[in-house]
Design brief:
The chain is an alpha/beta fold and 129 residues long. The chain is built from two helices and eight strands. The protein is globular, with a radius of gyration of 15 Å. The relative contact order is 0.19.
């Protein structure tokens, strides 16, 4: 028998409450404080389950510099026709567009960094056939 488990994607950062507020606003989720101020959760109705953990020596990721690989990123799916509005929301909340070799001209996927420097992608939801 398998023991029941829950999973989070945990993002290290200098200010977990601030980063949690960013993702909660971006994803329409809520912020839940952990056992202390160094661990904050973001939980949403559509299966969103993130956590932010304070790292006192945090340094932002440096991707897409050529010498560094992208280790992980969030993929945020939006409906066709909502991409421009989703981009306005993300940038209005503090996201920064990231220029990659695939950026020019592609409208079905756009890459950003969050206020702590983690990358995430806005992408079109796949259409079901």
């Amino acid at each position: 028998m398998t023991v029941a488990k829950s999973t989070y994607l945990v993002l290290d950062c200098a200010e977990p409450a601030e980063l949690a507020e960013f993702y909660a606003a971006l994803l329409g989720a809520e912020v839940r404080l952990g056992i202390d101020s160094d661990f904050v959760e973001v939980v949403g109705h559509d299966g969103v389950h993130l956590a932010m953990r304070r790292d006192h020596g945090y340094a932002p990721p440096s991707w897409p510099r050529p010498e560094n690989s992208q280790q992980a990123h969030l993929r945020v799916l939006v409906e066709r026709g909502d991409m421009d509005e989703a981009e306005r929301e993300a940038v209005g909340l503090g996201a920064m567009p990231v220029e990659t070799k695939h950026s020019p001209g592609r409208q079905d996927e756009r890459v950003y960094s969050d206020p702590a420097g983690h990358s995430f992608t806005l992408a079109l939801k796949p259409t079901l056939r």
